[in-house]
Amino acid sequence: MKTTIKDAKNHIGQEVTIGAWLHNKRSSGKIAFLQLRDGTGFMQGVVVKSEVDEDTFATAKNITQESSLYVTGTITEDNRSDLGYEMQVKSIDVIQEAHDYPITPKNHGTEFLMDHRHLWLRSKKQHAVMKIRNEIIRATYEFFHETGFVKIDPPILTASAPEGTSELFHTKYFDEDAFLSQSGQLYLEAAAMAYGKVFSFGPTFRAEKSKTRRHLIEFWMIEGEMAFYEHADSLEVQEQYVTHVVQSVLKNCELELKILDRDTSKLEKVKTPFPRITYDDAIEYLKEQGFDDIEWGEDFGASHETAIANHYDLPVFITNYPTKIKPFYMQPNPENEETVLCADLIAPEGYGEIIGGSERINDLELLEERIEEHQLDRESYNYYLDLRRYGSVPHSGFGLGLERTVAWISGVEHVRETAPFPRLLNRLYP
């Protein structure tokens, strides 16, 4: 009977065959321990010399790292294993014997590992990170479908910049100029006027020449837009969504979090409601903490966000940023029109902003003024203005960066480990 490492728990006491790769091994004169992996997990196979034929034991002792195998044996309980079971191996059928596998159990430099990313993904910790990423994606679809959102796929090739910046990848679209999308927001706003609540999940691109541990050139965004939702309503959706994702990972990725030595007590605290602090109060707090380098009207850097997040030990919303440092489409704050109805959600433990969101301008005349102030090509935004001409309503939305969220929840230091094949300023390979 063929099975997988993940499903082997359903076959205790039975003889099964598993297709696997040899992750590692150790042996003595009379016993060999094979660390097997098959994509669903990692499991130990025990080969006892007195219980197998001579050829099988010789294969177990001599087989090389990352060789592919069919391993047949009996699944037995083992309380010392993280899985709670292992295999008593009866036979080994070698599919392909690997030689000189580049990533050995010794330590390797980061650049070497990134050059061999296609192989580094096989390691136990990288496997755990990708499983957590997968669970975040699964929980994302679950949350949005259960709360009545419709999935809409915005285009990747666009004629304009959603946030009006120059940090775009330019390409030719036949005889027109086009850009790789930096956000699907404007298209989702159009979809929200048709379907009420919508979300998207797709790649976005920023031609930002940054080398920090928080930045990628290509990353994945989960974006939501909601008609008839004001700013406060949107914040509630955001904190419910993040809480749902964190609790889903805690429930379904216990082993992966253990492999990564993640302090789950910090994640267990993540429950609604999240603390909130205005931009004005954040500036005041930072100055009290000795940050003399920040003035009102400036955006926060990594050290500022970390200081604010550490004060709360939870994800925290920083609300109502100055108008001049935010994109053109954000609704003015009626209590102070030098600021807008927006919020950034800052993750704990120094991982920075994971969500940016706002209420969107719904007044046609004001939006036209803002487009002109930002010196944007009005013709490119005609469809966006139409949304205010024909049945405009209050509406809000947000975007969550997947890779930063994976880094925070899994506890890894750099976002390059949270994408299968990360694109960095100096890296387009593999």
TrEMBL record:
Pfam families assigned: tRNA-synt_2, tRNA_anti-codon
Please name the InterPro entries in this protein's record.
Aa-tRNA-synt_II (IPR004364), aa-tRNA-synth_II (IPR006195), aa-tRNA-synth_II/BPL/LPL (IPR045864), Asn-tRNA-ligase (IPR004522), Asp/Asn-tRNA-synth_IIb (IPR002312), NA-bd_OB-fold (IPR012340), NA-bd_OB_tRNA (IPR004365)
Subcellular location per UniProt equals: Cytoplasm
UniProt cross-references to SUPFAM superfamilies, sorted A to Z: Class II aaRS and biotin synthetases, Nucleic acid-binding proteins
Which GO BP terms apply?
asparaginyl-tRNA aminoacylation
Q: What does UniProt give as GO cellular component?
A: cytoplasm
Which terms does the record give in the GO molecular function aspect? Answer: asparagine-tRNA ligase activity; ATP binding; catalytic activity, acting on a protein; nucleic acid binding; transferase activity
Q: Which residues form the Aminoacyl-transfer RNA synthetases class-II family profile domain?
A: 130-430
Query: What Enzyme Commission number(s) appear in the record?
Result: 6.1.1.22
Q: What does the UniProt keyword field contain?
A: Aminoacyl-tRNA synthetase, ATP-binding, Cytoplasm, Ligase, Nucleotide-binding, Protein biosynthesis
Catalytic activity, as annotated: tRNA(Asn) + L-asparagine + ATP = L-asparaginyl-tRNA(Asn) + AMP + diphosphate + H(+)
**Assembly description:** Homodimer.
Hey, which family's this protein in? Belongs to the class-II aminoacyl-tRNA synthetase family.
PANTHER family for this protein: ASPARAGINE--TRNA LIGASE, MITOCHONDRIAL-RELATED (PTHR22594:SF34), ASPARTYL/LYSYL-TRNA SYNTHETASE (PTHR22594)
Q: Which HAMAP family match?
A: Asn_tRNA_synth
Protein name, UniProt field: Asparagine--tRNA ligase
User: What gene is this protein a product of?
Assistant: asnS
